[in-house]
Amino acid sequence: MENFGSLILPLLLSALVGYLLGSISFAILLTKAFAHEDVRAHGSGNAGATNVLRVAGKKASALTFLLDFCKCVASVLVGYFLVKHACVANGVDPEMARLGMYAAGFCCMIGHMYPLYFGFRGGKGVACTAIVILMLSPITCGILLLIFAIIVVGTKYISLASVMCVLLYPVVLSSVDKVLYGSIQGMPELMSILMAGFVVFMHRENIKRLREGTE
Questions:
Q1: What pLDDT shows up at residue 69?
Q2: Helix, strand or coil for residue 57?
Q3: Which end of the chain, C or N, has fewer beta carbons within 10 A?
């Protein structure tokens, strides 16, 4: 595409900003502030809001989720506006600004899982991924949340619901895009596959316990 090269630097910058924001682990920071503990040393060992609830209580858990929500939203918006500015300045279709959203959102999720500031030991990325999906495709997010609720009610396993939903994410997104745009969009579907792969990998121990009936 003509002038696409002008978007490479803004896309890389979007990815970097997303990763650095994602690396701010509020689960670790707030658990240390409220309970003087490392959340990763307790419970599931996951640096996420659910484990914060076990270690530091409801207030710390709610703040963790709220601040994680904010960092994901900020990442996606920064990515969008950085690339949109480059699109306008270089005569590129402004719709390409969505690439900045995908780059920043994906890297925010990676930062959450492998935080630069905390020894690359973070959370499993479920809530972060859900927030990014909400920003990129609200309809897809709504469908997946409904599926998540049905699985949790039916099985009582949050980990199973999380894994099943991320596996269905590319399928649901493709179906939504076909209805809205008449075709698969390409980049969103590729990103959804990558996001699903990382989340499933982070849940490998949960999957093993589910298979053994010890979850």
A1: 95
A2: coil
A3: N
State the DSSP code for 137: -
- What does the alpha-carbon distance between residue 153 and residue 143 come to, in Å, rounded to a whole number? 16
Task: Look at residues 176, 171, 164, 170 and name the one whose alpha carbon lies nearest to residue 203.
Answer: 164
Residue 181, pLDDT score: 76
- In this structure, the number of other CB atoms found within 10 A of the CB of residue 62 comes to 14
Distance CA 66, CA 30 (A): 12
* Residue whose structure tokens are 């640096």: 47
pLDDT digits (tens, 9 = 90+) for 157-192: 988 999 999 999 999 999 998 888 776 667 788 889
Cα gap 170→136, rounded to integer Å: 13
Distance of CA 97 to the CA centre of its chain: 19
- In whole angstroms, give the CA distance from residue 170 to residue 183: 14
Token couple for 141: 């997010």
